Each structure stands twice: as C-alpha cells, then as structure tokens.
Amino acid sequence: MVLQRVIHKIRPGKWDEFQALEAQFDSVQAKLGIPPRKRYRRIYGKHSFYTEVIEREWPSLSVMEALASQYSRNAELRALQDQAIDLIECTQYELYQIL
Question: What CA–CA distance (Å, rounded) separates 9 from 29?
Fold first, then answer.
C-alpha cells in the first residue's frame, strides 16, 4: 500500500473558490475509479492558514501510475487543473509506504 500526500498552499482570498473546484475534482475522479481522498485544512503548525492537505491510499505504485496516465489524458480533469493553477500558490507531493 502507498499513501499519496499532496499539500496545496492556496492563494489568500481564494479558499472558497478552490473548495468549490475541489468538489468537481472529487466527482470526476470518482468516475475514473481513482480512490477517494481525505482532505484537511491546517489549523495550527508550520504551514500557512491557507494550506490544504490531501491524502489518498493506493494499492500499489503500479496502480497509481496506471491511473495517473489515464488521469492526465482526461479533458475534464485537465480543464479543472487549468482553473486550479490560478488558485494555488504552490504544491508539494509526497509518497509513503504504508507499514
């Protein structure tokens, strides 16, 4: 099992707009068979108040890679990503082996 973690720093004043877009991402990703994700907003810690952490578990790296290839070819997801670019200041990706 693999844990994928994505940390987005959202631009100030764009949180609500970003959250509306995230709901659309969830809908499209579910149609593609991408595992559901858990989302968190930073309350306290080193990151900005406008930080969202997303975690998703994958059965393996090979499954994740196969779906990522499908994901990148999907026009609906690409359109959502194009909208998200203006709302996200920076993104950090992490992968962990689940023990």
Answer: 21
CB-hemisphere CA count at 13 Å for 54?
Answer: 18
In this structure, which amino acid lies at residue 62? S
**What average pLDDT does range 16-23 have in this prediction?**
93
With residue 90 as reference, give the H or E element that holds it.
Answer: strand 88-97
CA distance 45 to 55: 18
Q: Which helix (H) or strand (E) holds 99?
A: none
Q: Output the furthest CA–CA distance in the chain (Å, rounded).
A: 38
Which residues are registered as beta bridge partners of 12? none
CB 47 within 8 A of CB 9: yes
**CA–CA separation, 72 vs 66, rounded Å?**
10
- Specify the pLDDT at position 39: 95
- Give pLDDT tens digits for 53-63: 999 999 999 99
At 15 the three-state DSSP class reads helix
